[in-house]
Amino acid sequence: MFTINLGHTNVPAVGIGTWNIGDDPAKHDDEVKAIQTAIDAGATVIDTAEMYGYGRAERITSEALSPYSREKLFLIDKVLPENAGRANLEKSLDRSLELMKTDYFDLYLLHWRGSVPLAETVEELTKMQQKGKIRHWGVSNFDTADIKELWSLPNGQDCLANEDLYNLDERGIEYDLLPLMKQQGMPLIAYSPLSQGDTISGNLTNHPLLKELAGNHHATVYQIMLAWTIRDHNTLAIPKAASPLHAKENLEALNITFTTDELKALEKAFPKPQAKQPLATI
Question: Is 246 exposed, middle or buried (0-12, 13-18, 19+ CB in 10 A)?
């Protein structure tokens, strides 16, 4: 089973994403069950944000987590950029902690850069860490220049992880960002690891190579895509658990290991970038 180290905590390399959950009351029971199924299958990392439904995702996630021991879970939440300064960061954090019914987050991320100076955000995140409200802090949607700027700031090197869009169809960060992060031992948290909607390469569920590999590994195409994302042992993927069945299948991807020939075939079908690309976001 693929695992990665996050702040001296070893966690399975597939966690649970919560983007868009809680938006449709008709899906409530399935969404709660999907999160619980993923945890029962071995997931320990749950990723959410104050932006997701402006609290709805945090509420339903908290409900799903209620039967489980807090100490066995690794909770990630995110602060909106407009709330990431002295005036509002602690208020936002306290609101999210209350909605999630916990005293602390294992990792608290700046969701993306905004108008608040980065140094001010780092200062406030450090204060929250010192108060024990967060164990670690990190960033999201940061590109190479952002990370370098961050590391130049006081306490900037304390950033635990960077969460970016990454999947077979969006490999732009492999050009210079991922090598830089790996050099410094910073893990990647990959959001939308299964891609969404129309992709550069078309409908991936019908891609001949992915279907062939799925057959080889007695897996689904989505499991192949997920296993590829975490292949480097330095990436945590956080797919959304859309249903209990998908939640279980996501965790089963942890047990897929590609041969050298399979990885070469994937590289040929989905080549990594040969030049710098703008940071992909959703």
Answer: middle
Reported as a single tens digit per residue, the pLDDT across 196-240 is 644 555 578 889 999 999 999 999 999 999 999 999 999 999 999
User: Closest Cα partner for 53 from 21, 94, 91, 89?
Assistant: 21
Q: Do residues 99 and 62 lie in contact, with contact meaning Cβ atoms separated by under 8 Å?
A: yes
Q: Does 3-269 carry CATH code 1.10.10.10?
A: no
CA dist 196 and 69 (Å) reads 32
What 3-state class would DSSP assign to 180? helix
Instruction: Show me where the domains of the chain are located.
Output: 3-269
Contact assessment for residue 74 and residue 44, using Cβ atoms and an 8 Å cutoff: yes
For 78, phi then psi, to 5°, come to -140, 145
Start-to-end Cα distance in the chain: 29
